[in-house]
Amino acid sequence: METKEITIRINAEFAHVFETASEEQRHKMEVLLSLKLGEVMRQKKPLEEIMSEISCKAQERSLTPEMLDALLNE
Length: 74
Known about the structure:
By secondary structure, the protein is mostly helical.
């Protein structure tokens, strides 16, 4: 698969997590983000609706920013 580097704005805390992660962890995060963006682009729903669904699922699973950080640092 061909890849291309882009620049996006994200939460400063998440940016720090990415910047301080190992090369392997960064690659995993890039793949995950790419897959998620592809999923969003294939859906016919408005972006706001998709974002709301993601937020609700995270809350249902009691996912906190600290938990996400811990998952990314495994």
